[in-house]
Amino acid sequence: MIVGSQAAQLPAPQLQPPPLERPGLIWDQVEGINLAKIANMPPQREWRQFLDHLRPSVRPLVLWIRGRVWIGSAGRSELASAIGSSRVGLVVSDDIGRGLATALRWLGVDVDAYGIADLYRLEAKLNLDPGTANAMLQRVY
Question: What is the 8-class DSSP label of residue 42?
Fold first, then answer.
């Protein structure tokens, strides 16, 4: 322990505010993978644009369901159709997200659900380098 004149005053830590999360539906294409985050169900026009973005592709999809987002039966069918034969890693945090994975599987989609703590398993499924999935999710946060 240092006392008296030898004690140095430590500078106050510089706390950075967390980045603001972008709401709604965000998608991108990274390293040959379709990447998307849904934080709430988007308007119909935006949902259609997203599905059209997925349709011509067989690229794997990393889909992050952020929060308790409900996609109805018509939306699940449309999503399954747009995904086609692509492999899907669904990042979820609750039972609604896991239910989406189950529904998509019933519709013939090659999908597995992962929690944030299981991103290493998602990376293994999609043959990604370690740490890649986290970096991708930060991109659409």
Answer: P
